[in-house]
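User: Could you write out the 3D structure of this protein bound to zinc ion? I've included everything you need below.
Assistant: Certainly. Input first, then the structure.
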Amino acid sequence: MSEAVAIAGPVVFFTGAGMSVSAGLPTYRGAGGLYTNSDLEPPHAGDITIERLPGLWQRFRGRLEAGVELEPTPAHRAIAAFESSLEVAVVTQNVDGLHRRAGSSRVMELHGTLAEVRCLDAGHISPVRGIQWGPDGVPLCPECKAWTRPAVVLFGETLPPDAWRDATRAMSTARTLVAVGTSAEVYPAAGLIASGVCPAETRLWVNPETEPPSGDWTWLQGPADDMLARLVAG
Ligand SMILES: [Zn+2]
C-alpha cells in the first residue's frame, strides 16, 4: 500500500471536474463538465428569457437526467468520511451535486448545482428528482407552477454570493488545503486557493496530469479515488 499522508483540520477540499471522472463525467474545462465541446455556444445569461428558455432546457435535459443517475465516487465518499474526525469544508466548482449525495454536510457550490432548479417568479429552489416537465419542455416549479431554470451559474452570471462568502471564510482558516482534480484555471473560483486567500501551511495537489500552479504544493500525482484513499486524519 502507498504511503499515508496525514492531514490536520480544519481542512478545505477544493474540487474540480477530475473529482467526478470515475462517476462517468468527462472533464471539460468549465464548470464541472457542464459545457461540452458539442455545444455550438455555451449557455449564457442571455438564455434566461421566455423565448430562449425552452431551447436552453432542450440542451440541458439530457445532462440533467444523466446527472440524476450518477453515483458519488470513492473520492467523494472519502471526503465525506473525514467529517467524523476533522472539521471539513468542501468548495467545489462542480455542478453534479455528488458531494452532497456522498454525505458531505458543508459544501459550497461555486457554480451552483444541476441537482436543483430555481423558479423564475419567486426563486423557489426544488430538487430535479421528480420534477414535472411542462408542455414547452421547461420544468415547472412544484410550489407555484412557474417556469424554472437550472440552478447553475451560466456564463455572464456572477457566482452565488453566499457560497463565495462561505468559501472565502473557510479558506482563510484552513490548516490543510487539498485541491482535487482541478486545473485551477477557471476564475474567479481559482483565485480562492491563492496563498493570499488561503494561507494553509499544508497544501496538497491531487491530479493525475496537471502540475501544481506553484512550488508550495505537494503533488499527489494520480487519480482522485486512489490519492484520497491515502489521506488520513492526523
Ligand atoms: Zn416557484
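The longest helix spans residues 53-69.
User: Perfect, thank you.
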